[in-house]
Amino acid sequence: MCGIFCFISKTDFTGAQEEILSHCQCHLQNRGPDETSRLEFDSRVLLLGTVLWQQGATPCRQPVEDDRFALLFNGDLFMDRDGPPEDSDTRWLFRQIVATRGEAEELRELFGVLKGPFSLVLLDKVRRRVYFGRDCFGRNSLLVAVSNDGIVVSSVLGNKVQQKTVELPPNGIYYMDLAEDNLDLHIYPWNTKKE
């Protein structure tokens, strides 16, 4: 179990992200006491990950990032995969994401074949897009809260968070384009057709 937190600001940071994070920090720490790390992007996106080390030879600090992507992942993948057996699911998934080069259809296909309970947040720094979602059965929590300042996506929120909060429906992978003025919510729905 890990804690994932993302604040997407409608404009440049105003301080609201730190206030909301302060209300959630201890709850996030309870979900992942072994590692904590944060990333700020473009004065608009704050990512924070707390890790409970259960997989891999060493703890995998989150967000996992390179020049293009930053990933927060909470889950377990039950599928055959390539790579070192001592690798965590997070590291494996990050390599697969990097291999897509940010192509929307390839990302959609990748997320669609994941098997197991998960929730995730992915920042594409080049396309300036934030993806988030959870598996089609909704087995891992992912909450969304909307305020005048921005949007919070988190595995847990404290009871002092005043924004209206909903559990993200497990209907697909959602995304927000930071280039859009209104931060409209878009979705790549899960393919529910039986083959």
TrEMBL record:
Residue stretches spanning the membrane: none
Signal peptide: none
Gene3D superfamilies assigned to the protein according to its UniProt record, in alphabetical order: Glutamine Phosphoribosylpyrophosphate, subunit 1, domain 1
SUPFAM superfamilies listed in its UniProt record: N-terminal nucleophile aminohydrolases (Ntn hydrolases)
Swiss-Prot/TrEMBL GO biological process terms: asparagine biosynthetic process
InterPro entries: Asn_synthetase_domain, GATase_2_dom, Ntn_hydrolases_N
Taxonomic superkingdom: Eukaryota
Organism: Culex pipiens (House mosquito)
Keywords from the named record: Amino-acid biosynthesis, Asparagine biosynthesis, Glutamine amidotransferase
Descriptive protein name: Asparagine synthetase domain-containing protein CG17486
Stretches assigned to the Glutamine amidotransferase type-2 domain: 2-179
